[in-house]
Amino acid sequence: MKQLFLSFFLLMSVLVKAQDTMSETCHKLSSPDGSYLFNFYQDSTSHMHYRLTYKSRIVVEEGELGVQIKNQLFESALAIPNDTCQRWGDNLRLIGVKYRKQDEVWRPVYGERAEIRDCYNEMVLEFRKGNEEAKVEDNYDRRKNYLMNIVVRAYNEGVAFRYHFPEATNGLFLHIIGEETSFTMPKGTMAYFERWTQGPYEFRPLEGWGEEESERPLTMKLPDGLTVALHEAEMTDYARSKFRLSKDKSSTLETSLYSSVDIITPYNTPWRVIMVAERPVELINHNDLILNLNPSCHIVDVSWIKPGKVFRSGDLKQVRVKDAIDFAVERGMQYVHLDAGWYGPEMKMSSDATTVSVDKDLDMRALCKYAESKSIGLMVYVNQRALVQQLDSLLPLYKEWGIKAIKFGFVQIGNQHWTIWLHEAIRKCAKYGIMVDIHDEYRPTGFSRTYPNLMTQEGIRGNEEMPDATHNTILPYTRFLAGAGDYTLCYYNNRVKNTKAHQLAMAAVYYSPLQFMFWYDNPTMYQSEEELDFWKAIPTVWDESRALDGEIGEYIVQARRSGKEWFVGVMTNTASRNLTITTDFLKKDMEYMMRLYEDDDSLDTRTKVRSTCKRIKAGDKFTLKLKSSGGAAIHFVPVE
């Protein structure tokens, strides 16, 4: 009996010791409202893992954390003993944990909301790697010593984490060849896969991707009905990431870097972001999380940063550009854009963006002066081939001409070099009071908070590719979680696959502080269509934004407020549907005049959009009958 009691006592001692060991390496962080719970732990081999739940429902079953660093060459060069670990993080020791909270409200220069709350709980896990007892000789620290922190923030809107490397005492650079960061999702999870930023979406299971990788944000549907989005924030001097499937672990997404990264400490990697929603529209309403994860504005005087609507002048003749300026004035727009070709063939390195092409009769100074006399700003397209060679000479020249903005064309993205170049180019533009629109494959990660002269960017399959309505109703829940998107809205062009009311609604659904309208159109196409008063009245930035209802790839109802007026955009996919709209977003006890623009094939007009007006008050309901690939645009004005 004594022997049995002794065996039981020893077993309990082992269990207690094991529990104590686990408690030392297991640390939790919850969001302010308690919805998110992030659980960090290290296993017996020091591998770092995490689990994430949302309202007690599993989101990430188990993910790995860490970076892959190959530093033996740097170590040898500095006479520091080589690291012999197969995985760089194998001997990281947790030496401290710190917690803090923040809750503040800030006002962006412009945005989807006039005020943004930045409220989170933070946990910093501090690690040390190497021999801290080695000698320091001749003022050189030759210890094989590394420091790394994992910074975790839990918001009510999502969870984000990144790796921070404090300043090294031994002079070592870090050569990062990859990340261990992964996300093991519940079995049966489906993803809105997108191979490149201007590509189509496919609804795929987390299997069978082969060597293909998906863009970010990556939005997924979990088997229990939750919607999850993975993204990154503050990616300004690193390598772009995508998501690939693990070859060793099912239903597991790995962070795949475009290339290796070389850093000097102290250094922060980009944030890895996880957002969860019970209703998909909640992701849209929480998209300020990406801005909150970026530094505050670095531009002191922002008075020259002015959002607005843009008309593209594809006909690069002096008289036609003036016609475009006059059209912009008449249609309530603020900018005219001179597209590719004004300074020569854009794909040739020999084309000089300081001069007008010899086959064009453009007088840039005169055009800027004419535009300014009409309160219109002029912006120009410049391919990266010219920007790389001439940016430092272009900026003072364009400021002298009176150019207000540059559209960067065909930017090279992906590796660390081009990431740094691109964001430095935006900073340089800010010094000369020039706004920026980046086209092609760039996708935002929140830099517009820090440098709000970055007004918008493409990185979207828009009206240059003429996608269908199903694609258009996926975008609000995927691409637009990252930030503003330059979709280049068409109206008259006969290649558009959707109805005119669908196109009208885009101006309210798709956020872009520089909003291009009438893409591929010209002023002669306009025939005083009444419904285009919606585009004339609508602004491009907002005091309040609410996604009211929707399902990914099916439909979206988006409401936005500027001052006292509300604008609502409704878009359906390729299926027709009836939707009932409840106007509880309107101010109580106030009456509004509602002007509704919707498709009506019975009309004997070329655009077949019907316009109706009625008085309405907060809480009233009305039903829309949307035709396939259709939509509706609605403008609410208070009745004074």
- Report how far apart the termini are: 90 Å
- Beta strand count: 37
Strand content: 35-45%
- Helical stretch tally: 12
Q: So what's the overall shape?
A: globular
Rg (C-alpha, Å): 27 Å
- Percentage of residues in helical conformation: 10-25%
Query: Structural class of the secondary structure composition?
Result: alpha+beta
Task: Give the uncertain stretches in residue-range form.
Answer: 1-23
Characterize the biggest β-sheet.
Answer: 10 strands, antiparallel
Summed over residues and divided by their number, the pLDDT gives a mean of 94
Brief summary:
Helices cover 19% and strands 36% of the residues. It contains twelve helices and 37 strands.
Describe this structure in words.
- The structure is a single chain.
- The protein is globular, with a radius of gyration of 27 Å.
- It is 19% helix and 36% strand.
- It is built from 12 helices and 37 strands.
Keywords:
alpha+beta, 640 residues, seven-stranded parallel beta sheet, disordered N terminus, single chain
SSE topology:
Elements: H1 2-25, E1 27-30, E2 36-42, E3 48-54, E4 57-65, E5 67-69, H2 72-77, E6 93-106, E7 116-130, E8 136-137, E9 140-141, E10 145-155, E11 159-165, E12 174-179, E13 182-184, E14 190-193, E15 202-205, E16 218-221, E17 227-233, E18 241-245, E19 252-257, E20 261-263, E21 267-268, E22 271-277, H3 281-285, H4 289-292, E23 308-313, H5 318-330, E24 335-338, H6 364-373, E25 377-383, H7 384-401, E26 403-409, H8 416-431, E27 435-438, H9 447-450, E28 454-457, H10 469-474, H11 500-509, E29 514-517, H12 533-537, E30 544-551, E31 555-562, E32 565-572, E33 577-582, E34 591-599, E35 609-617, E36 621-626, E37 631-638
Parallel strand pairs: 23-24, 23-29, 24-25, 25-26, 26-27, 27-28
Antiparallel strand pairs: 1-2, 2-3, 3-4, 5-12, 6-7, 7-10, 8-9, 10-11, 11-21, 11-22, 12-20, 13-19, 14-15, 14-16, 16-17, 17-22, 18-19, 30-31, 31-32, 32-37, 33-36, 34-35, 34-37
